[in-house]
Amino acid sequence: MPIELTLYVAYAGVVVLMALTPGTDNIYVLTRTLSHGRSAGFLAASGIAIALCVHVTAITLGLSQLFLSAPDLYAAVRWAGIAYLLWLAWKAFRASPDTELSAGRGGVLSKSRVVGQAFMLCLLNPKLAVFFIAFLPQFTNPDNGTMSLQLFTLGVTFALISLTVFSTAILFVAPIGDALRHHASFWKWQARISGGVLGAMALWLALDER
Question: What is the pLDDT of residues 49-101, one digit of tens each?
């Protein structure tokens, strides 16, 4: 193993705590689970996991360093992510209750759309790339071999733990959504709540200059 076991276990514990911390990714997964059920939640979690693998590949190849050396690129990706969140919020507010009701009760729900939205939310988060640059090297040791292999191992572990934590949360939240979706009033409010949450996340990201 390219990483010391004790260090790896400590890293895994930190990642679990991070995955439990509310953020755009897990909030989107839980929102999808409540509104459209367990399968939609798993699809959203899969999209995020795929995007995390892209981030992992980028840091392994050194591409994430571009965000540190090119502040304008970082800002462009950051604002693209904010704009995407606002667009999703607008779509949620404009969603037809009848369409949402049909999808929630077994109608057609585009799997590719759910996966794609989750993927883009995670991918258009330059803070995650910069976070990987700052965080992952703390758990590496040049004496243990190739740094790229160590970074890749840590990154994949991050993605797998996140997927596991999200999946566990989905199993707990899904029954609540199943119960709520039997009430017609739920469909009148879920689009507004989803849109409000997405809009709030966009505002939070826009105001956070750290």
Answer: 999 999 888 888 876 666 667 777 777 877 887 887 787 778 767 765 544 44
Residue 125: Cβ within 10 Å count: 22
Token pair recorded at residue 201: 């996340």
CB atoms inside a 10 Å sphere around CB 197: 19
Handedness of CA 129, 130, 133, 134 (dihedral sign): negative
DSSP 3-state helix, strand, coil percentages of the chain (rounded to 5)?
85, 0, 15
pLDDT digits (tens, 9 = 90+) for 115-170: 998 999 888 887 787 788 878 888 877 777 777 888 888 989 999 999 999 999 99
Range of the domain at 81: 5-207
DSSP for 72-112, please give it.
Answer: HHHHHHHHHHHHHHHHHHHHHHH--HHHHHHHHTT----HH
Cα–Cα distance, 131 to 135 (Å, whole number): 6
| Number of domains present in the structure of the chain | 1
Distance CA(148)–CA(96), nearest Å, equals 48
